[in-house]
Amino acid sequence: MIHENEISARHARDAADASMVGRMRLVLSTSALLTVFIDPKGAGELMSFTWLVFSGYTLHSVVLYILSQLDQPFLQSKLIHWLDVGWYALIVLFTGGESSSFYLFFFFAILTASFRWGFEEGARVTLASSALFAFTSLISVTDAEIPRLLLRATFLLVLGYMIAYWGGSDVAQKRRLALLRDVSQLSNPRFGVDHTVASVLEKTRVFFKASSCILVIRDTESASWTLRTAMEDHPGRSINAERISAEAAAPLMAFPQQQIVVYNRPLWPALAGTGASSTLGGNAQVKWIKSVGEPGDGLAELLEARSFITVPLSLRRGEGRMYVISSKNGFGKADALFLSHIVAQAFPVVENIELLDRMASEAAMRERQKIARDLHDTTIQPYIGLKLGLSAVRNKAAADNPLIEDLDKLTAMATQVVGDLRRYAGTFKAGPGQREPVFLVALRRQAAQVREFYGIDIAVSMEGELDISDRLAAEIFQIVNEGMSNMRKHTSAQHGSIKLKCANGGLDIQIENECLGAQPTEFMPRSIAERAAALGGKAYVEKGSNGGTAVHIEIPV
Q1: Given this model, what pLDDT does residue 353 score?
Q2: What is the pLDDT at residue 221?
Q3: Fewer CB within 10 Å, N or C, the chain?
Q4: The domain boundary residue, chosen from 147, 181, 215
Q5: Could you say which DSSP state residue 101 is in?
């Protein structure tokens, strides 16, 4: 999930680029119009519609410049540079075709397309510009002018291709730096190792436009194998580690441990199978060795892949491999080397998070045992004494005492609290166990107590698979508990609902209550908002479906 500050920064950069391009387009169109006005003969063979075309392009540039100052999203589309190509074709057509010096304007469209959208878009604009220039020139060209037309069209094509290539390299470099920054940033330790690894796999798959990304790891201490898979068909799905046997992991570990491999299946079966691999030496120099056949062909058939790249993982407590698999696109050596950089940046962070997670779990276990003992000695025992005292007072009361009913309610309440505390202490002593059932049972138990003690009926429901760590579950429990408390203290509602939904890489919590009496003024629950912000999420309030108030909390998981 991309942070809002990053989205704002990216939007600001795009707006600045659009403003700069708009200014340069306006300067270019104005200079062209002045050139035709000052020196009509030097501009080429002018036709009757020449003034109309130049004036129209200048007006077009003025409108786009004004829109760029108003920060209109329309200027971020690919249609803009294609409109420029169309205008330049008309300018060349009405200024003499092959003899027009305005064919150089095509490079403006090629530059903006290449450095904004990358090589593929720049190459398309280059081909279209060369074809339009040749077509508009052939209308009026003579046999003697054909060689110069071919030279200019070839010059436009070659230089445009070079611009597209360098522009694409610049765009790709920015994307790579952004990905390396994302995977090297320390994730919130509350989310745990699974969340961090899943984020790395999904971001890597999206970057390479791959169909899947696979991570297989062997733990040297337990000699167990785990497999994680990010799939294109299930984006945003929770990626958990699955235990697999050594026999199932063997095909994925068929390459030598220090080898980076690139495999591309030929487009036509008649061609021989090809594969490329590289071995990293001690001096970090890469020597590419071409190989044919197994194990690349067999693994590609097993993975149902047209191409794949794989790099080794060297961990403190194990080893493994990371695969990026594509059923459509091919990969190159640069892709494989960049994947090795991703692994080198990301997995030391993952190991640090795992170490912090293990230390936190051990500390939490010791703290749970201490809290369990303290609960028994300082909380449960006094409640038991209170229960016994209430029972003694109840026994002394006469049968017609009007306080008997109240004493019975207090005794029942004390009995329930003692039972809840004992179960609570048992949960602390036993550890987190199965996280989802304990978390949901705790919420429903809290809602049942609110219903019994305060008469507010709160329904708790969950949609989707809720896979979160125990520490994150504890934070969410506090948020929901605060919402129940606010409903009891600040509203007169008798009914409410708590809905949890885990989808698209985030957890959405909705705390809603009915509206009785006057509509509440706008407010923001400060404690809930602060807790959500600490988890990297946000909270906002809107009108509920039943006319009441609904507090929405969005937390990335």
Answers
A1: 66
A2: 74
A3: N
A4: 181
A5: G
Residues 230 and 177 in one domain: no
Q: Which residues of 120-155 are buried (b: 16+ CB within 10 A; e: fewer)?
A: ebbbbbbebbbebbbebbeeebeeeeeeebeebbee
Whole-prediction pTM: 0.60
- Residue 267: its pLDDT value, please? 62
Looking at the structure, do residues 307 and 163 belong to the same domain, yes or no? Answer: no
Rounded-to-integer distance, Cα 215 and Cα 227, Å: 6
- Angle, to 10 degrees, between the axis of helix 119-138 and the axis of helix 106-117? 160
Close Cβ partners of 355 (under 8 Å, ≥ 6 residues apart): none
**In order along the chain (557 residues), what is the average pLDDT of each group of 10 residues?**
50 75 89 81 63 88 88 80 91 82 90 90 93 85 80 92 91 84 63 75 88 87 84 69 85 84 71 45 56 74 86 82 87 86 80 67 68 66 74 76 77 76 62 52 80 83 71 79 84 85 78 71 78 83 78 82
Model pLDDT for residues 486-522, shown as the tens digit of each residue = 888 878 788 888 888 877 667 888 888 887 655 555 6
DSSP result, 169-217: HHHHHHHHHHHHHHHHSPPPGGGHHHHHHHHHHHHHHHHHT-SEEEEEE
Cα–Cα separations (whole angstroms), residue 149 to 101, 153, 180, 371 = 12, 6, 46, 86
For the chain, the residue count is: 557
Same domain, 20 and 156: yes
In our burial notation (b when 16+ CB lie closer than 10 A, e otherwise), range 490-520 reads ebebebbbbbbbbeebebbbbbbbbbeeeee
Are residues 256 and 344 located together in one domain of the fold? Answer: yes
Q: Domain residues for 193? A: 188-357
Percent of the chain that is helix, strand, coil (3-state, to 5): 60, 15, 25
Contact partners, residue 235, CB within 8 Å, separation at least 6 = 202
Q: Which element (helix H / strand E) includes 435?
A: helix 435-454
- Contact call for residues 306 and 264 (beta carbons, < 8 A): yes
H/E run at residue 506? strand 506-513
412 lies in a domain?
no
